[in-house]
Design goal:
434 Repressor (Amino-terminal Domain); mainly alpha; elongated
């Protein structure tokens, strides 16, 4: 077990919900990575996406950094802009 595993183990012991929160964050990061890949595959710049979303380029950079807590509606608009409206986010139940 390495240091990261030990850190996660301690956090789970301190907060039983931590494992679920960590999984949600991993899913969010992967979703954003896929959307950035979609933007690049479509040859779009951050500036072009920002224009389509009617926001500043810095907002797109913040979304793509995946560091902030981005609202669902903003991420959905980003998905639509990077995919030429072919991709929409949808919540589904398990």
């Amino acid at each position: 077990m390495d240091d990261l595993d030990l850190s996660i183990q301690h956090r789970i012991e301190a907060n039983p919900e931590y494992a679920e929160l960590l999984e949600a964050e991993i899913r969010r990061q992967r979703l954003i990575q896929r959307l950035v890949a979609e933007r690049k595959a479509n040859g779009l710049t951050q500036a072009a996406v920002a224009k389509a979303m009617r926001v500043g380029q810095s907002v797109v950079a913040e979304i793509e950094s995946a560091k902030g807590d981005i609202r669902y509606s903003t991420l959905d608009r980003y998905a639509a802009a990077v995919s030429h409206r072919r991709v929409r986010l949808e919540l589904v139940s398990d």
